[in-house]
Queue: 2 jobs
Job 1
Amino acid sequence: MIFYFTATGNSLYVAKQLDEKRFSIPQELNKTNRHYKDDRIGIVCPLFEFDIPDLVKKFIRGSEFETDYFYIVITYGCHDGAVADRVQKNLKYDGKQAQYITSIKMVDNALLVFDMKKEKEIEHTKKIEEKLAIIKDDIINKKHMIQEALKEESEFSEGYFAQKAVNGPMYAFPLYDVKENCVGCGTCAKVCPMGCIHLENGKPIHDYTNCANCMACIQHCPTKALQFASAMKEVNSKERYRHSEISLAEIIQANNQI
Ligand SMILES: Cc1cc2nc3c(=O)[nH]c(=O)nc-3n(C[C@H](O)[C@H](O)[C@H](O)COP(=O)(O)O)c2cc1C
C-alpha cells in the first residue's frame, strides 16, 4: 500500500506508478485508528522548504506501519536540500525507520518563485520517467537505500534556513486575495487538504490557522480569481500548474474535506 499527499498532482502521479492500493494522507488523517499492515508500505509527498510537509509528518508520527519494507519518495522541483537524511533523522526521533528514502525532481510548483509556463517547458529536461523507472525497480526489489546527502545540497538548505531565521518566513498571511472574476465554484475549498476554505455569499473565505501552504487553492482556481495578496509578487500570475496526467477530480477526491 502507498500513502500520498499532493497539491498539484506530481506526488499522485508517482504514487500511481508505484502501487495500485493508494490512500490519500489528508483523508487518512481523519481516521483515529491508523494501523497499517502490508508487504510494502510507501509514502509519496512533495518537498516543502527542504522537508516533508507537516501534515505528512503528523500522519507518520500518529500511524503504525507493520511491514518489513517502509519507503518514502519525495517529489521536488529544483533543490532537495539533502532531504532524505533529514527525514531519516526525524523518523529515528519518532522511533521509526525506513528502508528506502529517495527524491525525484519534477515540475517545481512554487508559484512565488517560479514561472509555471517556464517550469512546464523544462519538464522534459528532468528525465522524470527514467528516474521513476529506477525507483519502481528498487521498490519491487525491496532495495535498502537512504539517498546520499550531497554536500552542496546540505549547504544549500542550511543557507536557506539561516536566511529564514534572519529574514522570517517567505510567505506572509493572508496569502491570497479573491478577485472580481471569482465565480463561486468552490473548487478552492474542495482541493484544500486542510479544510481551511468555506464559501460565504458565493466567495471563498480562508481560515489560515491550519493552512498547509500547499497552494492547491490558487493552483486549481479555474478562473485564476485567487491571486497572491498584494504584498507578494508572483512571477507569472497568468499561469498555473497541474500535472498533465492528473485530473482536477483526482485532486478533489484526494484532498476534499467538505
Ligand atoms: C510551499 C512550497 C515549498 C516548496 N519547497 C520546495 C523546496 O524546498 N525545494 C524544491 O525543490 N521544491 C520545492 N517545492 C516544489 C514542490 O516540492 C514540487 O513541485 C512537488 O513536486 C509538488 O508536488 P505535488 O504536485 O504532489 O504537490 C515547494 C512547493 C511549495 C508549494
Job 2
Amino acid sequence: MDEFDYVVIGGGSAGSAVTGRLAEDGRASVCLLEAGGRNNGIRVRTPGLFPFLPEAANYKFETVPQKGLNGRIGYQPRGRGLGGSSAINAMVYIRGNAWDYDNWASELGCDGWAYDDVLPYFKQSEGNVRGADDFHGGDGPLGVADQLWANPTSKAFVEAAAKLQLPVTDDFNDGEQAGFGLYQVTQRDGERCTASRAYVEPLRGRANLDIRTGTLVKRLVIEEGRVTGVAIQRGGKSEFVKARKGVVLSAGAFNSPQILMLSGIGPADHLREQGVEVVSDKPAVGSELQDHIDYVSSWQADSTETIGDSLTATVRMAKAIIQHRFTKKGIMTTPYAEAGGFWSVMADSPAPDVQWHFVPAMLEDHGREKVKGHGFSLHACVLRPESRGTVRLNSDNAADAPRIDPNFLSDERDLAVLREGIRLSHRIAEAPPLSDYAPQDRYAIDLNDDDALDALIRERADTVYHPVGTCRMGPDEGSVVDTKLKARGVEGLWVADASIMPKIVSGNTNAPSIMIGERCAEFVQAAT
Ligand SMILES: Cc1cc2nc3c(=O)[nH]c(=O)nc-3n(C[C@H](O)[C@H](O)[C@H](O)COP(=O)(O)OP(=O)(O)OC[C@H]3O[C@@H](n4cnc5c(N)ncnc54)[C@H](O)[C@@H]3O)c2cc1C
C-alpha cells in the first residue's frame, strides 16, 4: 500500500501551489493525484496556440438547460491535467478587488481573509517582471509579465476608453482596480506559466514528491470520521493511497463537490437518491455555485490586422508560430484577451461591477464556431452576480461529469448590470480610434430598448469561466470548510481551490485560486 504524509487531489491552480509548498523543504512526503496528463507540450506552452489546445486537456463540461438563457445548454470548459484550468485559460493576471476580501472578512465572518491578510500571499506567489513593490512580488514562482506584443486594435480599445474620459491604468492589481488598459499575463519568457510549471515541475524528481498523472480519484476513504486516504483508478486498476497526516482536495469548483458527494459528504437526500451512503449531511456542498455571466459583443471590421479567418491571417499566423519557436516573442505570445477594464455601471456599487475583455478577433460560441473575415469582440461580465446555482451528482461514478446548474440570470439584478455593461461596450467601440476600423455590429439592435437587449442577452450570454462557491468557506457550522480551509464533519481533510470562495471575487479567478493554495499549505502544516 502506498503511504505518504500528504495526498493532494488535483494538480490545478490551487493544487499545484499546495503541492509545491508542502513538498519544497523536503521534510514531508507528498503525493499529487491528477486525472489528466503532464500538459507540457508546445500547444500548452505557446500562448497563441490557445485555439488548438489538446482535446484531452479540457473536460468540456456542459450545464443543464438554463431557463434564464432561453433553455440553452451552457459550455463549461475546465482544465484536465497538470496546471488544471491554468493550462487552458486566457492567462489574464487579476486578483479581484480589495473590497471582495474585506467583505469576506467583515460581512461573511471569514476572519483572516481581509485584503491585508491575503496580499502577502499574492505577493509570495508572484514573479512579476516589473519587480517587487508594495503590491507585487518579484521572485515568486508564478511568472507574471507585460504582454510582449499587442494587437493595434487592443491599443485602440484602451485609447477609445480614454476618449470617453474613462481612466487608463497599467496595473489592475495595485489596489485601485477601476480603469482600462492592457492586462498583465501569467507568462514567463513568452510562454504560458501554468500553476504546475510554477510550483510542481521545478520539484520533479525529488524523492519526497510523487506526481501521479492519469490517476482518477474515485472517492475519499473515511474511517471512524477521519479521512485516511483516497481510492483511485490508475491504468485500469483500482488502488488505495494512504495519507498519514492529511488529504487536500483541490479538484476545482465542479469536481471537489463531486468527490465530497461521492464520499458521502453532501446533501443527504441527494446522496441517498444516488445510492451513496451518507457520512455527513452537508447541504452546502455543491450549493451556492456562482459564476460570471458574460455577453460578447462582436464587430466585423475592415482591418486585416486583427486575428481572423483569411489568407492574410493564416500566413501571418504560420510565420508567427515559427518566430515564437525560435525567439519566444511576437504574435504567438497573445493571450487573445489582451485588453480590458473594470468599471461601475450601477450607481450604488461598492467596487467596479463589470469587467471587460477585449479580443482582437470575432468570437462566436466560445470560439467553437469559426467566423469568416476580420473584426473584434468585447466581453462584458457581471462581477458580483446575485444568481446562485448548484453542482450535483449525475451518477455514483467519478468518471462521469457532475450535473452543473449555474442558474444564470435567475436573479433579474444580474440582467440589469449586464445591460449597462453592454451599453458601455458599444460606446467604447463607437469611440475613436476604435471607430476608425469602421466596426459593423454583428447583432445590431436598438440598445435603448431594454426588452430587445434582454432578449439578445438571454439568447447569447454564457460563462466567462469563473465558477466558485461550491465548497464555501465560513465561520458557521453550515459551511463546508472553516476559515483555515479544514473540512467540517470529518477529520484529516482540507479543501483548497476556487470552490471555497464564499462569494465570487470581482475578477478572474486563477491568481485567487493560487493564493488559496498558498494559504492552505500553511494551514495544513500548522495543523499537522
Ligand atoms: C477557458 C478558460 C479561460 C480562463 N481564463 C482565465 C484568465 O484569463 N485568468 C484567470 O485568472 N482565470 C481564468 N480562468 C479561470 C481559472 O483558470 C480557474 O478559476 C482556476 O484555474 C481554477 O483553479 P482550481 O484550482 O480551482 O481548479 P483547476 O485549475 O480547474 O484544477 C482542478 C484539477 O483537478 C483535477 N481533477 C478533477 N477531478 C479529479 C479527479 N476525480 N481525480 C483526479 N484529479 C481530478 C483536474 O483534472 C484539474 O487538474 C479561465 C478558465 C477557463 C476554463
